[in-house]
Automatic annotation (TrEMBL):
It comes from Thalassovita aquimarina. This is SpoIIE family protein phosphatase. Keywords: Hydrolase, Phosphoprotein. The modification 4-aspartylphosphate is found at D41. SMART domains: PP2C_SIG, REC. Residues 1-108 form the Response regulatory domain. The keyword Glycosyltransferase does not apply.
Length: 396
């Protein structure tokens, strides 16, 4: 009788209803046509309302259904047990039509919000899936770009008679904005450089690719540091002139906003004279064979900032066993454990530690990088690209 009365109320308010004489019959209906809202008595023959609620919640459902228990129980413990089982609301019998309608309206609002949330979650899930797919594609492209960037350094260490140039390039991401390199037109002279392009990521990496062509170790006719003398012979252009030409090329392209710092050195292998241009890059470090160290240079203006600049070089003379280290600010400006930057003094400590280990050439540079990593806080990553060029004059 009460079920029929509730049905009349609901249908009179415009709701579509289904009736079941028992919980078992109701489960059969719900398994094929889940309702938006269930009104169930607590006390029923066979399965009671709590058992029905628990069984209903275990049914596979795409949408949430609102469950109201009708009961004569008014104890707090009974209400708590009903909520634990999965009921959403309670109505005390005898049921008031006004209260029933108010509770159903409240349930409808909750269902509407829940389904809107589910719709938005599905939209977010689809969007995240597309973003993951796009990220995977970008990641594949960046991995390939890194391989291409690595190909710009066909060799990391090369001997020139009894002297040697070694290179280190460790981007902080897949690709980076640092570039190192070396080139030599004959056995008497060698040029080497260290470049740090402003910014990070793809744009900076594209700039390094462009610069690698302008300082090619393979195609001297494209290298701005070379002058063609005869049919197939090349000589080294004065270092300051080479950097000036680079500045003209970069500033003449109005679409390019990037600039770069640079150290470029040209060493005469017969007498140890090295001419260096410093264009905003950290000061080169001269490591004497007797253990003394000296920072060189006056700073200079980065390349690509202003058109029409003239650059000046300076000279240092190296003795057998001396080394010259070019490095990016990824070393000195790295925040080590404690929060302070490594700085120039910290770099010297890394150098001395590598010397104590008798490291030379490529092993020396790799050991510097490993030491820097060891100074980081647990879980901290290096935030900038790391690069270095090491020239060793007449080493055994």
């Amino acid at each position: 009788m009460e079920r029929r009365l509730l049905t009349c109320f609901l249908q009179g308010w415009g709701y579509s209803t289904s009736e079941a004489a028992s919980a078992e019959e109701a489960l059969t209906i719900c398994s094929t046509d889940p309702p938006d809202l269930i009104l169930s008595d607590w006390m029923m023959p066979g399965m009671d309302g709590l058992e029905f609620c628990k069984a209903f919640r275990e049914l596979p459902q795409e949408n949430y259904s609102y469950f109201i228990l009708l009961t004569a129980k008014n104890e707090k413990g009974a209400v708590a047990r009903g909520l634990d089982t999965g009921a959403d609301d309670f109505l005390l019998k005898p049921v008031s039509s006004h209260e029933l309608r108010a509770r159903i309206s409240a349930g409808a609002r909750i269902l509407s919000m829940q389904r809107e949330l589910s719709r938005k979650n599905r939209l977010i899930s689809k969007t995240l899936k597309r973003l993951r797919q796009a990220h995977e594609e970008i990641d594949k492209d960046l991995i390939q770009a890194r391989k291409i960037q690595e190909s710009l350094l066909p060799e990391l260490s090369r001997r020139f008679g009894s002297s040697r140039v070694s290179l280190l390039l460790r981007p902080c991401g897949h690709i980076g904005g640092d570039l190192v390199g070396m080139f030599s037109p004959d056995e008497t002279i060698v040029g080497f450089y260290c470049i740090d392009v402003s910014g990070h990521g793809i744009t900076s990496a594209m700039m390094t690719a462009r610069l690698a062509g302008n300082l090619s170790s393979t195609y001297f006719d494209q290298n701005v540091a070379m002058i063609k003398r005869f049919e197939s012979l090349y000589a080294m252009r004065p270092p300051a002139d080479a950097v000036r030409i680079l500045n003209e090329r970069v500033t003449s392209d109005t679409e390019v906003e990037e600039y770069f710092t640079m150290l470029y050195g040209v060493a005469d292998l017969s007498n140890g004279h090295v001419r260096i241009v410093q264009a905003g890059h950290p000061h080169p470090l001269l490591l004497r064979a007797d253990g003394t160290v000296e920072f060189l240079g006056q700073g200079g203006v980065p390349v690509g900032l202003l058109p029409g600049l003239d650059y000046e070089d300076f000279e240092t003379v190296m003795e057998p066993g001396d080394r010259l280290l070019f490095y990016s600010d990824g070393f000195t400006e790295c925040h080590v454990d404690g929060g302070d930057m490594l700085g120039e003094e910290g770099l010297i400590r890394l150098v001395r530690a590598s010397d104590e280990q008798k490291k030379t050439g490529q092993d020396f540079l790799d050991h510097l990088f490993e030491q820097l990593q060891g100074l980081l806080q647990p879980g901290q990553d290096i935030e900038d690209d790391i690069s270095a060029t090491l020239f060793e004059y007449k080493v055994t």
